[in-house]
Design goal:
The chain has 193 residues and is mostly helical. The chain is built from 7 helices and no strands.
Length: 193
């Protein structure tokens, strides 16, 4: 039984990661038809490095944190719907789409190595956190779905929701730590440029 649960978790992780990869691919394909200057502006790596060089690391932190916290909140709310499983997978793909657009913008901008170093670590790490959170939301959605279609005992849902909320608070804290690291990295890169 434990092996079957592990296989299901692994399958869901693969589906969510594949959705993000498909989103990145679609984002890169769509970016081929967009204006180069718009892509550079959308990526924001140069803006991040410029703000960090002027001592605006707190602004860099806020941009990084709130950009991903919005996704995290959307995923969190999807967990409370019995039929939000497709939306949770779509959010992973949509995050990938945005990353695909931004990656091409990073390559088109000036000082590609510094821009990639300022963009990629946070983008990859925060996407990993969002995929983990989407997995939790998927499980809660499935729990609500099973409660909706069966006469299963609903008494245990309160503790399950409590655990779910605690995990999302930890994900939010992890995103804050990652955003602070992103701001520090941008400051370091701006200092050596």
């Amino acid at each position: 039984m434990n092996e079957e649960i592990q296989r299901k978790r692994m399958s869901l992780d693969i589906v969510l990661a594949a959705a993000a990869v498909v989103g990145v691919t679609v984002g890169v394909i769509l970016s081929l038809k967009m204006d180069d200057s718009a892509l550079v502006s959308l990526a924001g790596a140069e803006r991040k490095l410029s703000a960090a060089s002027e001592g605006g690391w707190f602004g860099v932190f806020l941009d990084s944190f709130f950009g991903t916290a919005v996704f995290l909140c959307a995923v969190f709310l999807c967990g409370f719907s019995a039929v939000a499983q497709p939306a949770e997978i779509f959010l992973a793909a949509f995050r990938g789409l945005g990353l695909g657009l931004c990656v091409r913008g990073v390559y088109l901008g000036g000082n590609v190595l510094a821009s990639m170093a300022a963009f990629l670590p946070f983008a990859v790490a925060s996407t990993g956190v969002l995929i983990l959170s989407a997995r939790q939301a998927f499980y809660l959605s499935m729990r609500y779905l099973s409660l909706s279609v069966t006469n299963e005992n609903r008494l245990g849902i309160r503790s399950y929701v409590h655990d779910y909320t605690a995990k999302f608070l930890l994900y939010l804290l992890l995103l804050a730590v990652l955003a602070a690291s992103d701001a520090l990295l941008a400051g370091f890169l701006a200092g050596i440029m």
